């Protein structure tokens, strides 16, 4: 398969469609039927068949059964192909509960072990024996069993509990690495070969064995391995090019529980109105009750807010970060400036000379067939990316006779560059660098440019940052649970690939998406399962979340695709740190029963919760709890005028005698109080509880604000992020959730221009990005007054070198004057967003604001 197609596939936005199998003449559609189970032990197959209408039963002799999947563990019911009349007939039967049409979900790596601090013969990899013997079930497009990443050298045979099947046969079949492989696509009896590449890529990221000299076109060369190189893989094929039917996902989780998997990895998602409609959430609830960890991807619909999927608190939901390897193709300009871009295909014979360069209104789009030879022949063509995920530009330039292409990222994608193999010498640049190149071209009649292909470079210490496409919170199905939970590598990940690329034989490929970050976490969970076999899925989640990194490899806060501070709605608890996760000190555990109480608290009916938990639930008989009462390792609070108080229980999994002290990053306008402030443990597995309360003390900016609470001992920092949203009903005037501010223009203003922003002067409508170079926080806090809260919150919380983002200011006076004394670099951007009003304490006499 062509690599570009592969990327498009991954990024296909997660639409779901109803699915019509090849049965148009009968107008049959696939439905998922829920039924109630009789008390007595039953034969599931015959009981489920009893719901089928006569006609459907009859036809069974001469055509495949109408029943596609029968469920046992995760649901009472089955999926079947039925006409709407047949469904109506079925509705009359005793025990029938509901019939819902099938939905289609969309699918949403060599260097990443090193990047995450996993090293051979050392630390977590050694201590966890490389995940030896853990079984990771991967739900995906199938797998390429002959791929070198799935060789079984050093692999033990599958554990005795393994009951899964292998549907490959012949010379290339399962082995001690790939211990199971089944096809769950309804109506298909083909072995689960991977026709897309996605499943081969994700499986090898989670648990690929060591392969030397893995590379693409000679780039990113190195020893390839998954996160848990000695874990077993069980592939469950649930996706094809057209998507992933949700009834199959439910059926796979059902089977995986029987088969004995330890971990389920699901790089698939879609939008849902409730948890009982979301069969990933439904299936994983029962998996969780069985001690199976379910890892999901957050989706690729970022950077807008409220775009995330897989919201259930009982799964680990993973966003995508960048890592520190880039395949560089530098743009060199006639004026001597140069800008590093990226390109997967490195043109070896491309001359290092300057060519005439073209960028004009007529050529900028580089649409297929639109470029004329007269415009581009013999030139380097600059193209504006239309949608960073769709790349027709290279072919258009090549066809029209251009010598090379410089593709400029969209504004929304900013700094997130996807490494793609283009059909001609090319490079992709960030939006900001593109603006500078365009300015040069405008300024010169004889503009020239060249591309210098520099190959793979490591050690970009601004990583990790959040990738533009990684979906963002808040959580829509459960606003009181912070999602995503964690981020891990998902941009330009090298991993196994079934096909040759561009007529060059290559068994590895670079892909991007939260689909790629999810299996990183699945592999890391496998390592933790070896080190802590007695930990529940919730305990493992807690260990990963409370130890996550907040800073990049330069020691600066994690940034987003615009080089702004990444917020908790983008990164959740932070960037995974496997070594720290293996020794977290304290854990926040959750009893499976507590999730049922939580679902009662969310207001679902007994029947709906019964679907999810697959058991009879009566919310009047169990005490329901609110979202924030769940013993979750992070906080998402919607705060009105009322004080909110919660209890959390932590379990000591570190040394016996340990004392922890609390450290709180306060949020201006909110008082976070923790009691007690000290937790003393004398034994391992001892529990302690603390009370945390949130009180409004002043104005909170209209956006989400964030802080954190950490328990600190000599050897551990156990951190929980806190996200607070003003409750619009009680706070007034706050905008709705699903807004995504347009990305502001960036322009740096020189030091000389800064005084125009001093106290008493006015700059209308600006959003600011500030680089903190000194820190006089007390002074500023005292002088600035509480209207500057958003500003000050960031400044108080961050070390020198941080980049501060002021989401929005309309009338900007006062605070800036104070800041100006402390700051050397000031970046100003036109405002797109008008929520925060900044005024100096003594604003009287300030100039009026131009409109
Ligand atoms: C470019 O994007 C616009 C807007 O999304 C879309 O209508 C158009 O079809 C795209 N052009 C191509 C060639 O895909
Ligand atoms: C790719 O591999 C096939 C089969 O091994 C071989 O026939 C072909 O020549 C190879 N192509 C290249 C470009 O090396
Ligand atoms: C969680 O479940 C356990 C066991 O049923 C129960 O003891 C505990 O009180 C529950 N936690 C909360 C917050 O209700
Ligand atoms: C749930 O429990 C309450 C209180 O015992 C009872 O009144 C109600 O009938 C029960 N509901 C169901 C559906 O069993
Ligand atoms: C912790 O300290 C107490 C009192 O000093 C002692 O009795 C106990 O054995 C210690 N526990 C551990 C696990 O070291």
Automatic annotation (TrEMBL):
Predominant location: secreted
Positions of the catalytic residues: 140 (charge relay system), 198 (charge relay system), 515 (charge relay system)
Highest taxon of source: Eukaryota
Gene Ontology MF: a single term: serine-type endopeptidase activity
Chain ranges of the Peptidase S8/S53 domain: 131-552
Signal peptide annotation: 1-24
InterPro entries assigned: DUF674 (IPR007750), PA_domain (IPR003137), Peptidase_S8/S53_dom (IPR000209), Peptidase_S8/S53_dom_sf (IPR036852), Peptidase_S8_Asp-AS (IPR023827), Peptidase_S8_subtilisin-rel (IPR015500), Peptidases_S8_3 (IPR034197), S8pro/Inhibitor_I9 (IPR010259)
Location of the Subtilisin-like protease fibronectin type-III domain: 629-724
Domain Inhibitor I9, first and last residues per copy: 30-108
A GO cellular component annotation in the UniProt record: extracellular region
Alphabetic keyword roster: Glycoprotein, Hydrolase, Protease, Serine protease, Signal
Subcellular location(s) per record: Secreted
One GO term of the biological process aspect: proteolysis
Domain PA: 356-437
Family statement: Belongs to the peptidase S8 family.
Record-given protein name: Uncharacterized protein
Organism: Solanum verrucosum
């Amino acid at each position: 398969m062509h690599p570009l197609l592969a990327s498009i596939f991954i990024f296909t936005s997660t639409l779901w469609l109803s699915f019509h199998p090849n049965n148009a003449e009968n107008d049959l559609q696939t439905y998922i039927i829920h039924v109630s189970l009789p008390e007595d032990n039953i034969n599931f197959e015959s009981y489920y068949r009893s719901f089928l209408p006569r006609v459907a039963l009859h036809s069974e002799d001469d055509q495949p059964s109408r029943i596609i999947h029968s469920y046992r563990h995760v649901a009472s019911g089955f999926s079947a192909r039925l006409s709407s009349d047949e469904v109506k007939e079925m509705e009359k039967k005793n025990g029938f509960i509901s019939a819902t049409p099938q939905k289609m979900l969309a699918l949403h790596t060599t260097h990443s072990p090193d990047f995450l601090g996993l090293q051979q013969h050392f630390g977590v990899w050694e201590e966890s024996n490389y995940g030896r013997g853990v079984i990771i079930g991967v739900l995906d497009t199938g797998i390429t069993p002959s791929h070198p990443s799935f060789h079984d050298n050093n692999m033990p045979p599958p554990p005795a509990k393994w009951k899964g099947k292998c549907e490959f046969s012949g010379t290339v079949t399962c082995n001690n690495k790939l211990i199971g492989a089944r096809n769950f696509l309804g109506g298909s009896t083909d072995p689960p070969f991977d026709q897309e590449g996605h499943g081969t890529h994700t499986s090898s990221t989670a648990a690929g064995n060591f392969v030397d000299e893995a590379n693409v076109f000679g780039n990113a060369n190195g020893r390839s391995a998954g996160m848990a190189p000695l874990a077993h893989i069980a592939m469950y094929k649930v996706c094809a090019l057209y998507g992933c039917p949700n009834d199959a996902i439910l059926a796979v989780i059902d089977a995986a529980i029987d088969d004995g998997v330890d971990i389920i990895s699901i790089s698939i998602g879609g939008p849902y109105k409730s948890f009982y409609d979301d069969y990933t959430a439904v299936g994983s609830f029962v998996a969780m009750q069985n001690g199976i960890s379910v890892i999901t991807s957050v989706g690729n619909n970022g950077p807008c807010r409220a775009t995330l999927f897989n919201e259930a608190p009982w799964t680990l939901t993973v966003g995508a970060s960048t890592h520190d390897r880039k395949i560089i193709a530098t743009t060199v300009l006639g004026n001597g400036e140069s800008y590093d871009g990226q390109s997967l295909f490195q043109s070896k014979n491309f001359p290092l000379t300057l060519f005439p360069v073209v960028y004009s209104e007529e050529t900028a789009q580089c649409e297929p067939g639109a470029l004329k030879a007269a415009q581009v022949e013999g030139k380097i063509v600059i193209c504006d990316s239309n949608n960073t995920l769709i790349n027709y530009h290279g072919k258009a330039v090549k066809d029209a006779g251009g010598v090379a292409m410089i593709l400029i990222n969209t504004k929304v994608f900013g700094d997130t560059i996807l490494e793609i193999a283009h059909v001609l010498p090319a490079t992709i640049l960030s939006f900001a660098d593109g603006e500078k190149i365009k300015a040069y071209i405008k300024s010169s009649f004889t503009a020239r440019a060249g591309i210098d292909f520099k190959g793979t470079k490591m050690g970009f210490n601004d990583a990790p940052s959040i990738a533009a496409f990684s979906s963002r919170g808040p959580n829509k199905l459960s606003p009181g649970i912070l999602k995503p939970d964690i981020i891990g590598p998902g941009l330009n990940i090298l991993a196994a690939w079934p096909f040759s690329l561009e007529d060059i034989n290559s068994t590895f490929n670079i892909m991007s998406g939260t689909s790629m970050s999810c299996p990183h976490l699945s592999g890391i969970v496998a390592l933790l399962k070896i080190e802590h076999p007695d930990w529940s899925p919730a305990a493992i989640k807690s260990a990963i979340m409370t130890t996550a990194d907040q800073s990049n490899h330069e020691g600066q806060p994690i940034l987003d695709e615009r080089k702004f501070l990444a917020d908790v709605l983008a990164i959740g608890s932070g960037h995974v740190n496997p070594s720290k996760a293996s020794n977290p000190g304290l854990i926040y555990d959750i009893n499976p029963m507590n999730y049922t109480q939580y679902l009662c608290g969310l207001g679902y009916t007994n029947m709906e919760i019964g679907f999810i938990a697959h058991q009879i639930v009566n919310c009047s008989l169990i005490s329901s709890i609110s979202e924030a009462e769940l013993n979750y390792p992070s906080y998402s609070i919607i705060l009105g005028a009322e004080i909110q108080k919660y209890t959390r229980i932590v379990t000591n999994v570190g040394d016996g005698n340990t004392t922890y002290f609390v450290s709180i990053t306060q949020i201006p306008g909110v008082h976070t109080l923790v009691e007690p402030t000290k937790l003393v443990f004398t034994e391992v597995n001892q529990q302690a509880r603390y009370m945390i309360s949130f009180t409004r003390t002043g104005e909170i900016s209209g956006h989400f604000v964030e802080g954190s609470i950490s328990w600190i001992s000599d050897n551990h920092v156990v951190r929980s992020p806190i996200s607070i949203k003003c409750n619009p009903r009680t706070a007034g005037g706050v905008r709705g959730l699903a807004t995504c501010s347009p990305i502001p223009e960036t322009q740096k203003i020189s030091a000389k221009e800064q005084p125009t922003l001093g106290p008493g002067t006015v700059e209308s409508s600006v959003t600011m990005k500030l680089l903190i170079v000194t820190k006089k926080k007390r002074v500023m806090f005292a002088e600035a007054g509480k209207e500057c809260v958003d500003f000050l919150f960031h400044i108080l919380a961050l070390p020198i070198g941080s980049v501060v983002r002021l989401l929005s200011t309309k009338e900007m006076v006062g605070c800036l004057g104070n800041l100006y004394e402390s700051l050397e670099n000031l970046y100003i951007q036109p405002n797109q967003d008008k929520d925060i009003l900044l005024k100096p304490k003594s604003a009287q006499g300030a100039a009026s604001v131009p409109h």
